């Protein structure tokens, strides 16, 4: 079986972007591949969470992974900081990661813009840590959203350089993966970019959002005055709402509103109401499981320990072989 690795940073609650970009694939892939799904708590340190917040956020992703249907018996679910071998490999990979290429990474440039007072070295070397996450298990398929594509390219670059340096073909090449052929970018509700926490809470529909909150957020979503001519191309904000409808609604519903739009008969109030109701239907079973699982600390502890053990077994093997390739020898 091929090895699959992916992770999510614990920075709060999971939203529909995380779900359709990543988690929906995790759930399917676990039955076909050797899967490692982790909580990227080391990565989240770049933004300096308080110790109190950090633990809650990690717990939250663990709960939501389980609530979405990742089976801890089938896939390995673990917390990144429980596997110190990852940080060791990160150090080795940093020796093959060059300043110029790290500075050119889009996500680094975005962070320089969004957190100019905290441009730390961890942000710069973020892609090397991500490569370590994947290569520690020799992963080849990485289910992620479109925004991670460049990081995967860098993972291949660092792995290949390591191979060349040590004259080996030790690390395989890893590729971003989505079942739907194209990588996904789920839009937010602000009419502009992707759904994401840094774009603000009002822009995101969280898996844990209650029906009332979903209705409120969707009704406030950015739209416009409506089409003025038949068959007019859709402006970005409207296209985004249709794209969101595509992930939660039936083909009939989408076709219905598409037709109304083309005939200039669409009423955005009704359109949004339908979108909100379909999101509620999608979210509700997950939300209920989140509430259930989050009460069971014993179960969560058991899952985290089991995952750490399985992940470390795989990671120890890689580190042992990597040390030999590098030339560390016991005296
Ligand atoms: P993160 O925590 O920002 O996001 C987690 C996953 O959700 C996807 N995603 C989206 N997909 C589609 N549309 C959206 N609007 C959207 N928003 C988020 C992301 O693409 C990602 O798959 N660097 C990673 C975490 C990471 C990782 C790894 C991933 C660390 N090491 C190793 C894979 C393999 C990140 O910050 O994702």
TrEMBL record:
It is found in: Cytoplasm. ATP binds at residues 9-11, 17-18, 145-147, 186, 194-198. A motif ('HIGH' region) lies at residues 10-18. GO terms for biological process: tryptophanyl-tRNA aminoacylation. L-tryptophan binds at residue 133. It comes from the Bacteria. Its main location: cytoplasm. Keywords: Aminoacyl-tRNA synthetase, ATP-binding, Cytoplasm, Ligase, Nucleotide-binding, Protein biosynthesis. It catalyses: tRNA(Trp) + L-tryptophan + ATP = L-tryptophyl-tRNA(Trp) + AMP + diphosphate + H(+). Its EC number is 6.1.1.2. It holds the Pfam family tRNA-synt_1b. GO terms for cellular component: cytosol. One of its GO terms (molecular function) is tryptophan-tRNA ligase activity. SUPFAM superfamilies: Nucleotidylyl transferase. Homodimer. PANTHER family: TRYPTOPHAN--TRNA LIGASE, MITOCHONDRIAL. HAMAP family: Trp_tRNA_synth_B. This is Tryptophan--tRNA ligase.
């Amino acid at each position: 079986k091929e090895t699959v690795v992916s992770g999510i940073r614990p920075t709060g609650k999971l939203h529909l972007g995380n779900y359709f970009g990543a988690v929906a694939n995790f759930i399917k892939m676990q039955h076909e591949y050797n899967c490692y799904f982790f909580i990227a708590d080391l990565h989240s340190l770049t933004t300096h969470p308080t110790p109190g917040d950090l633990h809650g956020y990690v717990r939250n992703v663990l709960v939501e992974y389980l609530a979405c249907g990742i089976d801890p018996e089938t896939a390995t679910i673990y917390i990144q900081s429980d596997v110190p071998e990852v940080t060791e490999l990160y150090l080795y990979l940093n020796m093959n990661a060059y300043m110029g290429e790290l500075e050119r990474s889009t996500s680094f440039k975005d962070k320089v813009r969004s957190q100019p007072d905290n441009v730390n070295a961890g942000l710069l070397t973020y892609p090397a840590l991500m490569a370590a996450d994947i290569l520690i298990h020799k992963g080849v398929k990485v289910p992620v959203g479109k925004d991670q594509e460049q990081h995967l390219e860098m993972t291949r670059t660092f792995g290949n350089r390591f191979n060349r340096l040590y004259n080996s073909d030790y690390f395989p090449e890893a590729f971003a993966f989505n079942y739907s052929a194209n990588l996904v970018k789920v839009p937010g509700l602000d009419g502009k970019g992707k759904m994401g926490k840094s774009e603000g809470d009002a822009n995101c529909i969280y898996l844990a959002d209650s029906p009332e909150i979903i209705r409120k957020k969707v009704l406030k979503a950015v739209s416009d005055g409506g089409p003025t001519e038949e068959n007019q191309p859709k402006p970005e904000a409207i296209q985004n709402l249709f794209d969101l409808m595509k992930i939660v609604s039936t083909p009939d519903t989408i076709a219905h509103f598409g037709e109304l739009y083309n005939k200039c008969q669409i009423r955005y109030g009704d359109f949004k109401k339908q979108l909100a109701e379909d999101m509620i239907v999608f979210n509700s079973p997950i939300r209920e499981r989140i509430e259930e699982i989050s009460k069971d600390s014993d179960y969560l502890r058991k899952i985290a320990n089991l995952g750490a053990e399985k992940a470390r077994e795989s990671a120890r093997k890689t580190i042992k072989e990597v040390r030999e390739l590098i030339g560390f020898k016991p005296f």
